[in-house]
Amino acid sequence: MTDKKKSRNPGVIRLREKGKVAMRGRIPAGVMTASQMAAVARIAEEFGNGKVALTARLNVEIPFVDRRDAEEVAERLREAGIEPGSTGATLRSVVACKGTVCRHGCCDTQGIARVIEERHGGCVLPRKLKIAVAGCPNNCARVQANDIGIMGRRFPAFGAGECNTCGACEKVCREGAVEVVDGEAVHSAEACIGCGDCIAVCPTEAIGVAAEGLRFSVGGRSGRVVRAGVEAEELVPAEAALEIVGRLLDYFRENAQPGERLGELMDRVGVEEVFSAAGMRPRR
């Protein structure tokens, strides 16, 4: 299993102003309590310039902290239940969209993110690694642009009940995968992307669930070099997410060369090799 060893001086980010740093706090699944928000505000007033920034990975940053106060600010954040971090060659904060509460969500995105954070959050790696979880193909978390992407999918089973030919399923499907023809809903599996909207909108529960789970993508990244992750062939149950992530992190730690991202490792050893280590197959 992945070593939970942490990096030195987590959460400290040098600013252009000499002697000043920003302190970054990890916010699991991007959700804070009101008391945590109040604590961050107090720290920013006392040690910074009274401002708080939100990062692209749903963390908080307190800018313009005197470097000499960094350890004290880090301790104050911990007292509020916020761990400094998501910097350096580590597993960065896991991004989760609002699929847990969103009407489109096909999985508990925040729950998955928290489980990964609890087991692997901040672990030291050969280079930074980013994970994102999206609840559906709307893909608000941009999972394919992360080293490891996880997306909830839900595919329909038509004919599970009596259809009243209202056409709600046809109207809601943006991909044109459903069409009501001669009083019958006709579904195209080739065009369906597994968003599950037709299942949710059916007023008579005539559409069941044929398959649901998580689809992984591996090797993506953004920034100076942009690449899309390679999708896995199979859907996996939500309870398997932690184990698959652990296998990928272990393989990365044991095989990556210094400074190599997961996608670059895949280019060097082969896509099949990395997917096999995770117990998956790449989608063709």
**End-to-end C-alpha gap:** 29 Å
Radius of gyration: 22 Å
Number of strands: 12
Count the DSSP helices. 8
**Overall average pLDDT:** 94
The largest sheet, given as strand count, sense and whether it forms a barrel, is: 5 strands, antiparallel
The helix content is 25-40%
Proportion of residues in extended strands? 15-25%
SSE sequence, one letter per element: EEHEEHEEHEEHEEHEEHHH
Helix- and strand-based class? alpha+beta
User: How does the overall form come out from the CA principal axes?
Assistant: globular
Residue windows where pLDDT falls under 50 for at least 5 positions: none
What's this entry about, in short?
By secondary structure, the protein is an alpha+beta fold.
Structural account:
The protein is of the alpha+beta class and 284 residues long. It has eight helices and twelve strands. It has helices at residues 34-47, 70-79, 109-120, 168-172, 197-201, 241-255, 262-269, 271-278; strands at residues 12-14, 20-26, 53-54, 60-66, 83-84, 95-96, 131-134, 148-158, 178-181, 184-187, 207-218, 230-231. The strands form three sheets. Strands 1, 2, 3, 4 and 5 form a five-stranded antiparallel β-sheet that branches. Helix 6 crosses helix 8 (271-278). The radius of gyration is 22 Å and the shape is globular. The two termini are 29 Å apart.
